[in-house]
Write a structure and sequence with these properties.
five-stranded antiparallel β-sheet; about 20% helix; alpha+beta; flat; 3 domains
């Protein structure tokens, strides 16, 4: 008892300090739990799953669109001509034609009646051996689509393996060199490899000729090619204006006006 009486202040201070230490440790242990609890409160207030919007009712708009699409529209311009006068044009024979759609006369009235493919044909004519023991091949080339008539006939070309000609390069020889069963040619213009033999020549479409007519003036043109009517030569005259052919494909013919270079494509619709 004497000890407590003499040192009770120290004992009391130690108890207080011990309590403070225990409280500090307890506070440290409570911080994560308190932080988690506060975050849960924040999430509950801020982070909420939004309610789904009700399905949008567009039935009224759909009904209006259907009424517009199916409604009767009064055409006062293209057919009735209430406010726009309908033009008439005189043909070469003096008769008048009524312009209703705008394509009754002029290049849009041209009708393509026939398209003829123009082929490039390559034939293996013969093979021989040179005194040096190298194989030489005589190959015929016929270009129906050539621009000049003098270039359209068959011309024979002498060629050797891997030697470039104006049209092709022989890349491979199969069979005996002096009597090959097949040659593999690489075409200069396309780079494709084609097979050539005496029994099977190469034949590909490289252009077209066109026949077409102009019904308003009962005019016809046959076997027309691209470049047949350049400036300075006889032109194709349609409705008093000169045209020339600038392109022919398997589906259409393109005419170009001499006056302004305006191109007018005319489709080819073969009869079934």
């Amino acid at each position: 008892m004497d000890f407590l009486k003499k040192h009770y202040e120290k004992v009391l201070l130690g108890v207080v300090l011990l309590g403070l230490a225990v409280g500090a440790v307890f506070l440290i242990m409570m911080i994560p739990a308190e932080r988690t609890a506060q975050q849960e409160i924040v999430n509950a207030i801020i982070v909420r799953k939004p309610k789904e919007l009700p399905t949008l009712d567009v039935s009224r708009q759909v009904a209006l669109n259907a009424r517009v699409a199916g409604g009767d529209c009064l055409d006062l311009a293209t057919t009735n001509k209430v406010f726009n006068s309908m033009p008439w044009q005189r043909k070469s024979d003096g008769s008048l034609v009524k312009i209703v759609l705008g394509n009754e006369v002029g290049p849009e009235a041209v009708v393509v009646t026939k398209l003829t493919p123009l082929y490039t044909t390559i034939t293996l004519d013969s093979a021989t051996m040179t005194p040096e023991g190298a194989a030489r091949y005589f190959i015929g080339v016929e270009r129906e689509a050539a621009a000049k008539p003098t270039q359209r006939g068959k011309k024979q070309t002498s060629a050797m393996l891997n030697t470039k000609t104006d049209t092709f390069v022989i890349r491979e020889v199969k069979g005996p060199p002096d009597n090959p069963t097949e040659l593999i040619l690489e075409m200069n213009d396309t780079g494709e490899h084609l097979s050539l033999s005496k029994e099977k020549p190469i034949r590909r479409v490289d252009g077209y000729m066109a026949d077409f007519k102009y019904p308003p003036d009962s005019k016809t043109w046959t076997s027309r090619r691209v470049g047949d009517n350049p400036l300075g030569t006889q032109q194709i005259v349609i409705a008093g204006e000169a045209y020339y052919v600038v392109a022919i494909t398997k589906n259409e013919v393109v005419l170009s006006a001499r006056s302004n270079n305006k191109n007018t494509p005319r489709p080819y619709n073969p009869a079934p």
